[in-house]
Structure formats: structure tokens, C-alpha cells
Amino acid sequence: MNAVYEKLLRCYDCYKVKIDFEPKVALVLGSGLEDYAESIEIKATLNYHDIEGFPVSTVPGHKGRFIFGYVGEVPVVVMQGRVHYYEGYPMSDVVLPIRLMKMMGAEVLFLTNAAGGTNYGFNVGDFMLITDQISSFVQSPLIGSNIDELGTRFPDMSEIYQKELRAVIKNAAESLGITLQEGTYLQLSGPNFESPAEVKMCRTLGADAVGMSTACEAVAANHMGMKVCGISCISNLACGMSDQPLSHGEVQETADKVAPLFKALITKSVMEIGKLF
Ligand code: HPA
Known about the structure:
- The chain has 277 residues and is of the alpha/beta class.
- The protein has one domain: Rossmann fold.
- 32% of the residues lie in helices and 24% in strands.
- The protein has helices at residues 3-18, 91-94, 96-104, 163-176, 196-204, 215-223, 248-276, and strands spanning 25-29, 41-47, 65-71, 74-80, 108-117, 127-134, 180-187, 209-211, 227-237.
- A five-stranded mixed barrel has the order 5-8-7-6-9, surrounded by four helices.
- Helix 4 (163-176) links the parallel strand 6 and strand 7 (180-187).
- Helix 1 packs across helix 3 and helix 4 crosses helix 7.
- It is globular and about 50 Å long.
- It starts with a helix and ends with a helix.
- It binds hypoxanthine.
- Hypoxanthine (HPA) binds next to strand 5, strand 8 and strand 9.
């Protein structure tokens, strides 16, 4: 059997013996949002450390566990902390949690992140509904022999971020009085922030925001036929767009500041998404 799939099945077995909960929506929490998981009606938790072979984040401030519970009436699994490609994990490990959440039963994947704005029309603290993505700068998680049990060899990517889910999130934002930007997210490997020339390249290629996660996860999810949506918190303007040098502290600070609004948007969106499926 394919080694990547074998590992995934082992992780699934670990979940299955420990947790009796079937989520409908999977939520990945980006920087500044991690404690959202503690605000839901928690039914169970599973530490990444307790899942054999599961990749564990090395980023300071990133927690590492699944939280199972309800947002309103909607059964969810929340990833409190994700792993990034720049941590040195193979891409198959980076997307393993996404694949595992699909195996748990989640049909919808809700991705969040902090990202640098490359669009001059954006302001620090804005939220951007991800409408499309550019993942070509990082390795595809689908490289290697195809796992036929998960999806087809050459999956279509014409609507990675599902229109119906986008409409729900837009309505949720409007009802909360939250301005929602829209745009294309581009993933680079990191961990270094971009040079001004790279930021210009991102903009020239049509990106509105740049980050170090998310797009590879969306590819893996789309391969499995999950319905995907995503929101970026524009934690900073990308390098070269302001006079200040960029730091992880700035990213964290903005993300923390707008977290209450971001959390309200997620709650409302998930509750509405639950009515769809
Ligand atoms: N670049 C890449 N990743 C990021 C940024 C950025 O400016 N801000 C937050 N994550």
C-alpha cells in the first residue's frame, strides 16, 4: 500500500479508538485565532502528540490539538495550530491533517490564515475572502503515486473555493457589518518574508495576498472532493509596501487585534454553512 495512505490510516485508527464524534465542518485556525477553538461547545480534544506519526508544529505560539464540538448546532473539528511546509515536513505530512479530517467525516473545509496584503487597495486588519489561489511556488501535495482511495490523479481545480460557500460568508460579513475584501491568495514556502521584488511579482501574477500556508491544504482537500472556503486576515502590507521592516510580532499583533471580529465572522459563517449541508 502507498506509504502516505498507510500513515493516514494509522492516524485515523488512533482517532477512531479515542474519539466518538463525527464532524461536518473542519476548521483550520491561523495566527491569532487559535483560542477560538476554546470558545466552541467542546465535546472532546485530541492532542497531535497522541496521534502516532502526526506532524507537530514547531512554531512558537502555535498550539497542537484537534478540538471536537459544536458551533451552534454544527458539529465541527477545529485544528488549533497547523504545520507549515517551512518547518521541514514533507508536503504529504503538511496536508495529512486535512486528509484525516475528511476521513473523520468533514465535508466542508474552512481555512483561515494571516497573510500579507499585496493589493494596494487593502488595509492592515482587513479580511479577505479567498476566491482563488496560486500554489505553484510550493510542491503539490499530490506528487507521488496517486492515492486512488482519496481522489483522482488529475483533479480539476476550476473552483477550489466553492461559490456557494463564498456567498454564505459574504452574507455573514454583511449581516455583521464587516467589510470583506476578496482576492487571490498566493502561497510561498517561507519562512522568510518576501523581498519587495517578490511582492511585486506576486502582485503582477494577480495575487492580492501572500502567505505560507493554506493553498496546499486547499489542493489536498479539493482532490478529495471537499467543499473549501477560506478567509485571510491581512495582518500587514507585504514587504516594500510600507517603510517599516516586517516582523512576526507585527503579524501576531494585528491578528490578535482583529481576532474578535474574525471569530464572529467564523461563527456566523459556520452556522449558516451548517444549514446548507
Ligand atoms: N508574507 C508571507 N506570509 C505572511 C505575511 C507576509 O507578509 N504576513 C503574514 N503571513
